[in-house]
Specification:
By secondary structure, this protein is α+β, with helices and mostly antiparallel strands. About 35% of the residues lie in helices and about 25% in strands. It binds zinc ion.
């Protein structure tokens, strides 16, 4: 006898399933995702015997932590809403079935924000398991449960189910998004670390077979757990959230100020281990909503009317926002690469720091004339140290010739510039270069052109040059831990090999410090010893294809403390469209600002010279609630001035707020009565020296905070964060940006036949 399932039986089936889920939830924290529910035919065939429910228990995905065990990615409970339309289809009363479909479509469409028709169609399918929506959060689930209770008379609970799963959650929104990546609908890693370490994070799904007696009227059932799910392992990164935040902050400011057209990238790395402390890419995304475009990109898409073009543009822009420029894109490194040429020549004892090279503005190789950026007849005779500080191409062509093609190629390979670095991220790009270098390729390669490498290769090369000569493997995961915090695997710095000697590396450190002190002055960090090199490369292939000759990449690598290096910061800004494009003018300031914030954080105490002490900022003390005389004394002791407003005895309000950082000599406004804040008009603070900015600020009644290198009294300000003419509170802090305009790195190829 064939038994057709009736409403009663179906209801029981659902109850049993819910009970099984409940039991399992109690037994472990794992969750259920049904992969197979008996379909109609099987149901009918087996209905008189036993019903089997075969379910996968999805393992909770591992978390991702930063180096201080701050959560960067975790999972929170979520639910899948599904229907069992066959239950409705098999109702004898067709008008009742129709009423149920309508009620479900109406209720769920309004709760889940979906189309009525879409849900109505799902409710007609020939199936016992149709997903309505995934990743529903607790609040919505509660609403659904209440709605089910409200429709008790239709027994809607028999046709709707909720499976508990998880939803990936990134507590810091876009912080480090291009590094972290994101997951898909089924929590599978689709980009970044989520993708690279997907197997580790996913864990192993378990499996459950639950059985129930379909004939019984006494609700007897049993279940058997076949395999338990194994929770995914967690990643502990080398990345430090604070360093990451600082890298992103100053990159974003620079992208805005310099009108960067093709995004920018910043990498902060430990030069001894290759551990990545920060990796920022501008124009990134929120991994909680990876498919959402920025407002600007969305507007671009919306403006397209053709559906096909619209969709193509949309995926192009999505891929762009997900792309990790620091790892997946290559570029011509330009003059930053002179670090390599100098290190190789020193290592091979072809030169010393004091060897001299003559630049007469132009230099001919195999009939091709290379010009120096110095238009005033060239740099003349200069030492190796001066040549790198001058970023003189003719000098580096001569050094390249001393090295020769074979040795150049040997070190190109030894520095790992012929392959990938092996960083633990998906999509690392391969470099490209001439396998066979002729005299002109050697000449151009010596100053960083005619070949492409990735930013991550460039910073790794710089690390090797200063860390005693050892290669590094850049990496983001320090260790992998299980759910009990046992270390399963940790990064071992065992692939280190010595590429250049300690002696050569020591000479490189001295030379790169000289470069920052004499050439790349915008890389200076008050209170610290810093080495570095700037670069400005023309985007030759794009120039040839577009005809636009003004396409540059301005870059910089800075290293500190240069006498015993720990950290390197690499900055690249691709296609600046503002007034400046030299790496020394646009990228070195970013490196300096990042180091200014992170070196004290990393435990390095600044050692200021007397001259620097005059220029450092002071933290404003909290004097609210204090007697006015005591407040005055404290403020004066910090070399700040004050202005009292009101005739009260105690300070009721102060501006700037306690903890704000203001330039030495700044003014604190002390209110002794509850009155409206007085206002000031922001003056023009651009194109002035530091002392001129100070006096303009004091006259206007505002405070200033300086950003960037003020290496000499001739350095001028180039931007202010609150525009001139705006009305602000008296005592408001305005950030003023400085850079040394004389220290441009003008090492574009400038090749002519
Ligand atoms: Zn020169």
């Amino acid at each position: 006898m064939s038994v057709r399932p009736n409403k009663q039986m179906l209801k029981r089936a659902v109850i049993v399933m819910v009970l099984v889920v409940l039991c399992l939830t109690l037994v472990s924290t794992t969750s259920l995702v049904k992969i197979m529910i008996v379909n109609g035919e099987e149901y009918q065939a087996k209905a008189s015997e036993q019903q089997l429910y075969d379910s996968l228990i999805s393992a909770p995905r591992g978390d991702i932590y930063d180096s201080n065990m701050n959560l960067l990615a975790t999972s929170s409970p979520a639910w899948t809403v599904y229907l069992t339309p066959n239950g409705i289809n098999k109702l004898d009363d067709k008008s009742e079935a129709e009423e149920i479909r309508k009620t479900i479509a109406e209720g769920l469409s309004s709760i889940l924000g979906m189309e009525y028709d879409e849900i109505y169609e799902l409710s007609q399918k020939e199936s016992y398991y149709v997903i309505v929506k995934k990743k529903i959060e607790q609040e919505t689930v509660d609403t659904i449960r209440q709605w089910i209770l409200d429709n008790e008379k239709l027994e809607i609970a028999s046709y709707i189910g909720l499976d508990e799963t998880t939803k990936r959650y990134y507590p810091n929104d876009s912080l480090a998004s291009t590094v972290l990546g994101f997951v898909g609908d089924d929590n599978q890693g689709l980009a970044g670390l989520e993708s690279y370490y997907d197997n580790e994070l996913t864990g192993v799904a378990g499996r459950v077979v639950a059985a129930k007696n379909a004939k019984g009227t006494d609700m007897r059932f049993s279940y058997e757990k076949v395999e338990e799910a194994k929770q995914g392992n967690s990643l502990v990164l080398t990345l430090d959230s604070y360093v990451q935040y600082v890298c992103e902050k100053y990159l974003d400011i620079a992208v805005e100020q310099e009108q960067i057209q093709e995004r920018g990238a910043v990498i902060a790395m430990n030069v001894n281990t290759g551990a990545i402390l920060g990796m920022a890419v501008s124009g990134d995304f929120n991994p909680n909503e990876p498919f959402a475009l920025s407002a600007e990109d969305q507007a671009t898409v919306d403006a397209i009317t053709n559906e096909e073009e619209k969709s193509a543009k949309r995926s192009e822009l999505l891929n762009r926002q997900w792309r990790n420029k620091a790892v997946s894109d290559t570029y011509e490194p330009g003059s930053v690469f002179k670090i390599f040429t100098a290190a190789v020549a020193l290592e091979e004892n072809l030169v010393t720091a004091n060897s001299t090279f003559t630049c007469n503005h132009s230099y001919i190789v195999a009939g091709r004339t290379y010009h120096c950026h110095d238009k005033k007849g060239g740099h003349g005779t200069q030492t190796l140290q001066q040549s790198i500080s001058n970023s003189c191409n003719p000098a580096f062509i001569q050094i390249g010739q001393l090295i020769g093609v074979d040795t150049f190629s040997k070190y190109f390979s030894a520095f790992n510039l012929t392959g990938k670095t092996g960083i633990d991220l998906p999509g690392e790009a391969s470099p490209y270069y001439h396998e066979e270098r002729g005299p002109t390729e050697l000449a151009s390669s010596s100053f960083g052109q005619t070949f492409n490498i990735t930013p991550i290769q460039m910073i790794s090369l710089a690390a090797t040059a200063v860390n005693g000569g050892y290669s590094v493997t850049p990496h983001l995961v320090d260790k992998i831990i299980d759910s009990d915090n046992n270390v399963i695997e940790s990064f071992l710095n065992e692939n280190r090999k010595q590429v250049i000697s300690e002696t050569t590396s020591a000479t490189m450190r001295t030379m790169l410090e000289y470069v920052v002190e004499n050439g790349a002055k915008n890389g200076i960090v008050s209170g610290y010893r810093v080495g570095g090199k700037t670069g400005t490369s023309q985007k030759m292939s794009k120039i040839l294809s577009t005809g636009n000759s003004h396409l540059y990449i301005g870059s910089y690598v800075g290293i500190a403390p240069i006498d015993d290096p720990e950290i390197a910061v690499f900055v690249m800004l691709d296609e600046p469209a503002g007034a400046n494009y030299y790496g020394g003018l646009i990228s070195a300031p970013v490196g300096s600002k990042i180091m200014t914030d992170i070196l004290p954080y990393m435990g390095y105490e600044p050692q200021y010279t007397d001259e620097e002490l005059e220029k450092i900022s002071v933290s404003v003390p909290d004097v609210t609630g204090e007697e006015i005389s005591a407040a005055k004394t404290r403020i004066n002791s910090l070399k700040l001035s004050y202005k009292v407003i009101g005739s009260g005895e105690t300070v009721v309000k102060q501006l700037p707020e306690a903890g704000s950082s203001v330039y030495n000599g700044g003014m604190v406004i002390l209110y002794t009565e509850e009155t409206e804040s007085q206002t000031a008009t922001v003056p023009n603070l651009i194109g002035l020296t530091a002392s001129e900015v100070n006096s303009a600020a004091a006259t206007a009644g505002i405070n200033v905070e300086f950003s960037g290198s003020i290496s000499s009294n001739t350095v001028l300000s180039y931007d202010q964060d609150i525009k001139a003419g705006e009305t602000v509170s008296l005592g408001q802090i305005v950030t003023v940006y400085f850079r040394d305009e004389a220290s441009a790195d003008m090492a574009e190829t400038d090749v002519s036949e």
